[in-house]
Design brief:
- The complex is a heterodimer of chains A (286) and B (395).
- With 286 residues, chain A is an all-alpha fold.
- Chain A is built from 12 helices and no strands.
- In chain A, helix 3 packs parallel to helix 7.
- In chain B, 24% of the residues lie in helices and 32% in strands.
- Chain B is built from 10 helices and 21 strands.
- In chain B, strands 6-7-8-3-9-10 form a 6-stranded mixed beta sheet, with helices on both faces. A 6-stranded antiparallel beta sheet of chain B has the order 13-12-11-14-20-21.
- Classes of the chains: A mainly alpha (286), B alpha+beta (395).
Chain lengths: 286, 395
């Protein structure tokens, strides 16, 4: 009969543990919890009425609407791209595969401001395609298409990076089994591939969406800050803040903070429930 | 319902996985593809399943061109080594998959599918497990689900890729006996890949021994074991002592032992012989011509004892197998003096480059004059001299 070795905590060890825990908690409070609370406190500083006034102004409404619109385009596009890219990366061997992997990661390694500037350089009035686009009456920069493009670029890696390691680990035997059993391509995808990656996909989409709605840098460059037309929620927050409209700024900011909290809650629930079906690392490892 | 494979070639970037492979599989036959990893056996199976395609060659089943058909048109059942069960589906849903993906016209009614699933689960002794998920089953149970799933589409051909490879030894033996019985009940043409010779010898009607993308020999387990066609088969199947022989007149000698009446009419000057451990006769008293040996070590393995023998007259030590009972009766211990002589041997002449000539195999038996032997195999089908075990790349 052997007993499991009892874990004895000496005084110094207990003390060390306590101090470390305390330090971690204190750090979290000062750097995360306090700012988050501050957002809501500031937003409601002049009462609920002022808060709801602030978020129901036309500018706020159009910013919310635009943010949702941009995300509603960018996220599905990156969902499709992410699945396609992950499929290619996980199922095939080809020349330049590692290069493709690097390209998928590119948006993580490039500063968002640069990402925005690249689009200005390409599609802006002085840019490569600018004059041609102008001649045909298409405006991309300082307009909604620019916002969508910049957001798509920034959020491109989220879905793919989440799926690649999972699909590589799962291998393609189940798909081969499905084919031999008589499934056609679509049946194989919808009955075998997709169910196997569904939680990781949801996870990736969630992160992608949070980023798409919260992106500031790249969007700021291509937006042109035309109130009511090309300002998303983060840009609206900045503009209000610069105009000393603190309640307004924090009220709109609280919407983003709420989005973050909801995302965090769903993400945690997913990790807790389907942890083994979700790639262990956060995308991009930034 | 014959399955006819003709001159299949398949190259992977750096090596040939299949090299001019031809094989004919009879209806209802249980055929094992046996070989070391990298010998091409799995590639051959994947080609039959439609998951891989050869660069050249033909596969005909019942006169139907198999290579022109997509996997879903071939009506084969495939069982993977690692089961490849759909992890998000229950056992019953897994088994029903092949029926549910059929076009509306060909799909059986729901009740029919349910009844068939029920019946199949009973057949693989898993009735009552339908609502479980694969992760809730043991390895042996999972493999039986995979088998039921493959059988559900009523395949013309059942393909098994190392089906017991991932199971532990005891389950493996039980499951393969069970599989053999199932095959006898169903009479389904079955091709089965394995690197485990015991499995192949025990299960198969015929065995195709593969090495480096070629088929070395096709035959019944008895033929493969008793009359190996090439040096590779001698070494890969069972154990064999290798002896170097040199000519002296009309006879060949190995360390003083005489292999008389060579069948080659003086053609070859050198040869090598393979002698199975159970074909060495041991004696404690001198025997004319026998090798003098010293017993170095005894490995007792249940009913059989493996003996390591040092023979001064030969360049290699010998391994002999005798029944444990005989060991006790003879009172043998390490260090004992013994006289050893072969009773059977498979002898291959060597050509000028020292490569064995498999066509001129000589099945030698002590005291029996052998007729000249010419094997009915083409020179091209045998990798001459390349009898080393290829520890190469998987597939």
């Amino acid at each position: 009969m052997s007993r499991p070795p009892s874990r004895s905590f000496g005084w110094p060890r207990l003390l060390g543990r306590g101090l470390l825990t305390l330090a971690a908690v204190a750090f979290l409070i000062v750097f995360l919890l306090l700012p988050l609370t501050a957002v809501f406190v500031e937003a409601f500083r002049q009462g609920a009425g002022a808060f709801f006034d602030a978020i129901s102004q036309d500018e706020a409404r159009s910013a919310i609407w635009l943010t949702v619109l941009v995300a509603a385009i960018a996220v599905p596009v990156n969902l499709v791209f992410g699945i396609a890219a992950a499929w290619v990366m996980a199922r095939f061997e080809f020349r330049g595969k590692s290069l493709l992997g690097a390209f998928i990661d590119l948006p993580f390694s490039v500063s968002p401001v640069i990402s925005g500037l690249v689009y200005v350089l390409l599609f802006g009035a002085q840019g490569w395609f600018g004059p041609w686009l102008e001649a045909h009456g298409v405006s991309i920069i300082f307009a909604v298409p620019g916002l969508v493009l910049a957001t798509m670029f920034i959020t491109l890696p989220f879905v793919a990076r989440e799926l690649i390691p999972l699909m590589q680990a799962q291998g393609n035997e189940e798909e081969e089994a499905a084919r031999v059993l008589g499934a056609n391509g679509w049946q194989m995808f919808f009955r075998v591939t997709l169910p196997n990656i569904r939680w990781a996909l949801l996870y990736g989409v969630l992160l992608c969406n949070a980023r798409a709605m919260g992106e500031f840098g790249a969007v700021s460059v291509v937006s042109g800050h035309i109130r009511g037309l090309t300002t998303t929620i983060p840009l609206e927050v900045e503009m209000r803040y610069n105009e000393y409209d603190y309640v307004g700024a924090f009220a709109v900011a609280s919407l983003l903070a709420l989005l973050a909290l909801v995302t965090l809650a769903i993400k945690t629930a997913l990790e807790w429930r389907y942890g083994d079906e979700i790639a262990s690392h956060a995308p991009g490892g930034r | 319902m014959t399955l006819e494979l003709t001159r299949l070639n398949r190259r992977f970037s750096d090596y040939p996985a299949l090299n001019d492979v031809s094989l004919s599989i009879a209806p209802g036959e249980f055929l094992a593809l046996l070989g070391p990893s990298g010998s091409g056996k799995t590639t051959l199976l994947r080609i039959l399943a439609g998951l891989d395609y050869p660069e050249s060659g033909q596969v005909n089943f019942n006169g139907k061109d198999y290579l022109a058909a997509a996997p879903r048109e071939r009506n084969v059942g495939l069982v993977f080594q690692h089961y490849a069960l759909f992890r998000h589906l229950t056992v019953a849903e897994n088994v029903a998959f092949g029926l549910r993906v059929r076009s509306r016209r060909a799909r059986p009614k729901r009740q029919e599918i349910e009844a068939r699933v029920e019946q199949l689960l009973k057949r693989v002794q898993l009735d009552g497990f339908g609502k479980r998920f694969p992760s809730q089953l043991s390895g042996g149970q999972r493999q039986r689900v995979a088998l039921a799933r493959a059988l559900a589409v009523e395949p013309d051909l059942l393909l098994l890729d190392e089906p017991f490879g991932a199971l532990d030894a005891q389950v493996r033996v039980t499951l393969r006996r069970w599989l053999r019985r199932l095959h006898e009940e169903l009479g389904l043409t079955t091709v089965f890949v394995t690197h485990d010779q015991e499995e192949a010898l025990e299960l198969a009607d015929r065995i195709a021994v593969m090495n480096r993308g070629r088929i070395e020999q096709v035959g019944t387990p008895r033929e493969i074991y008793q009359q190996p066609a090439t040096p590779f088969v001698c070494e890969f199947i069972g154990k064999a002592n290798r002896l170097t022989l040199r000519r002296e007149g009309a006879r060949f000698l190995a360390g003083g032992w005489i292999f008389a009446d060579e069948p080659w009419a003086g053609e070859h000057t050198r040869a090598m012989a393979y002698v199975r451990p159970e074909h060495l006769t041991l004696s404690t008293t001198p025997v004319p011509g026998a090798w003098r040996a010293r017993l170095r070590h005894v490995y007792l393995a249940g009913s059989v004892a493996h003996l390591d023998l040092d023979v001064a007259a030969l360049d290699h030590p010998l391994e002999a197998d005798i029944a444990s009972e005989d060991l006790a009766r003879m009172g043998l211990q390490a260090g004992a003096q013994l006289y050893v002589s072969p009773s059977h041997a498979v002898i291959f002449p060597l050509d000028h480059d020292g490569k064995p000539v498999a066509e001129d195999r000589w099945l030698w038996r002590a005291g029996v004059v052998s007729p000249p032997v010419r094997l009915p195999i083409k020179r091209s089908e045998v990798e001459l001299g390349a009898h080393r075990v290829d520890g190469g790349i998987q597939r």
